[in-house]
Amino acid sequence: MMTAGAASPGPVTEASTALPPAGGDSGAADPLADAMLAIRLAVLDPAGLGGVAVRGAGMAEPMLLDALVAALPPGAPIRRVPVHIDEEQLVGGLDLGATLSLGRRVIRAGLLAASDGGAVVIPMAERFDVRRAAQLCAAMDEGGVRAPGGTEGLPDAARFVVLALDEGSEADDRVPPALSERLAFSVDVSAARLPGAAAGGADGAADGGAAVPVAVVARPHPEVLEALAMVAAALGVDSARALLFAMRAARASAALDGRAVIEEADVACAARLVLGPRATRLPPPPDVQPPDAPPPPAPPSEPESGESEQQLTPPPSLDEMVLEAVLASLPRDVLAMLAAGDGRRKSASRASGRGERRRAVARGKPVGVRAGVPRGGLRLSLVDTLRAAAPWQKLRAGSVQSSRVKIRRDDLRVFRFETRAQALTIFAVDASGSAAFARLAEAKGAVELLLAEAYVHRAQVALVSFRGAGAELVLPPTRSLARARRVLADVPGGGATPLAAGLLAAGELAASARGRGMTPFIVVLTDGRANMTRDGTADRARADREAADAARTIAASGVACAFIDISARPRSEGADIANAMRARYVALPRADSQALHSAIKAAR
């Protein structure tokens, strides 16, 4: 059975590595203290928790590294992984020079195997190559690494904790998703107070010497599992891995305080550090009941003599207390962001504003090699071919001494390349009503700003205008700024709002662009108040239904979208259409071209 209350803090440690107690105040909002606490928890259970991703480390990096050194056993290896590291340095591989000189395969261990029992530190993790990240993740999952060309059998042991230092300044600069998914903790310390200014710095540090192995801690009580699952559901965390991380973090929190039983504060600590950063929505207020909910129970009768009113009030459940602790620890701007619907993590392809990555045969960005014959445009990788053939030279030569290298078909290696598809931003602009000219002016300015970036991102821009009885493609896909200015100068405005026609025209253009190998992105600028059907009938109710059907058609196509509500007083119609499209909804009642441009880049 769980016991309430937090564990007593241990003695104070040095200020440079000061850490809060694992079971401390769950409502504390010191991100630097949270980051150092997360490091200690991850070191206690590296196989179960993976490590920590720290956003905006900057000047706090020395403190984080000091905390890592203090948490690890004395003499444990710590290896830094540069962003430009190659496969051979990371996972090991064939030592070509030694192999050729000795006539037998010589395998050199990589950085991951050298980190066994210690830690891997990744500076500038937002720039870490996705291929190297995949190899790192494979080593974390397997607890070892197999060097390419190595001997068959068990891999070299590689059990370590990861400290990923994300130093990106832009919202799109993030740790590779495959790696961040395997790290239990993610802390943003960009707004953290420096040493000496932190109120909870050295005064609440726990003594690492009092920690016990995680295996000593009893498995979580079913009440703990239920509470964590309820909090995850309330915060919109749909990852089973995150829930497992929270359970392991609760055990590590108890182990850090030297206890064999998980307490209430451990559960709150785990939910705050693991589930809080992964939240994608805010839970509904407690007084909001679903429409079919049963009526609330009748108020209790008057208390009998000697019975206090407090005794009649049931204590809050564990999941309610844990959820309250998580919400209290989130910064206010995070709450506002989640309330605005911006909690979902953006995928890399949409966030970058560039086209999708695709494999290519003979040109593009090199992304490794593979076995194959260099024909049909494929290019031979001579070094990798020699590397594959080198281990077999002594066997192939037999008793005949020769300096010639014998290469067979199986040794041939060819390059693999990757290119980006062209991106197409399709503007669907409402040109109806008295404000049509202002809307078109805003759209023209945003188009010109996006075209200025076209040569950088290999992007094109198109414009669909809808008004009166239908929609018109006024600017076909182009990268020419001069052509766009000539065409946009003559775009008319006024009339009714055939929203369904505009959405369908934009969707058809997106489907056509995708068929030509492009990556389309639709931006709708309207107030969402349709009043004209597709056949030219002025029927508002039917026009709304047709617009909703057109929005669902776009959503089914999987095209990324943004819906910009430009009405003076945004109402529910725009948000409903955006939800049907599965589009990012942005309300900009009075926005100039620069504001539109910024909103489109953020949504894309």
Features:
single chain, 604 residues, alpha/beta, 5-stranded parallel β-sheet, 38% helix, flat, disordered N terminus
Q: How many angstroms does the end-to-end distance come to?
A: 49 Å
> Helix- and strand-based class?
alpha/beta
Strand percentage? 15-25%
**Radius of gyration, CA atoms, in whole angstroms:** 30 Å
The coarse silhouette is flat
Oligomer: single chain
Let me know the number of strands: 18
Helix count equals 24
Major β-sheet profile: 6 strands, mixed
What does this molecule look like?
With 604 residues, this protein is α/β, with parallel strands linked by helices. Helix content is 38%, strand content 16%. A 6-stranded mixed β-sheet has the order 15-14-13-16-17-18, with helices on both faces. A 5-stranded parallel β-sheet has the order 2-5-8-1-9. Strands 10-12-11 form a 3-stranded antiparallel β-sheet. α22 links the parallel β16 (519-526) and β17. The longest helix has 18 residues, at 540-557. The chain is flat, with a radius of gyration of 30 Å. The relative contact order is 0.09. The model is unreliable at 1-28, 196-209, 288-293, 302-313 and 340-353 (pLDDT under 50).
List the helices and strands and how they pair.
Elements: H1 31-44, H2 46-49, E1 51-55, H3 61-71, E2 78-80, H4 87-91, E3 92-94, H5 96-102, E4 107-109, H6 111-114, E5 119-122, H7 130-142, E6 144-145, E7 156-157, E8 161-166, H8 177-180, E9 185-188, H9 222-234, H10 240-256, H11 264-275, H12 309-312, H13 318-329, H14 332-339, H15 348-352, E10 357-360, E11 365-371, H16 382-389, H17 393-397, E12 413-420, E13 423-430, H18 436-452, H19 454-457, E14 459-467, E15 470-478, H20 481-488, H21 499-515, E16 519-526, H22 540-557, E17 560-565, H23 572-581, E18 584-587, H24 593-603
Parallel strand pairs: 1-8, 1-9, 2-5, 5-8, 13-14, 13-16, 16-17, 17-18
Antiparallel strand pairs: 3-4, 6-7, 10-12, 11-12, 14-15
